[in-house]
Amino acid sequence: MSKLIYVLNGPNLNLLGKRQPEIYGHETLADVQKRMEEKGDALGLEIAFFQSNHEGELVDIIHQAREQAAGIVINPAAYSHTSVAILDALNTFEGPVVEVHISNIHKREAFRHHSYVSSRAEGVIAGLGTLGYVLALDYFAQ
Ligand code: DQA
Question: Side-chain half-sphere of 127: how many Cα atoms within 13 Å?
Answer without folding.
Answer: 7
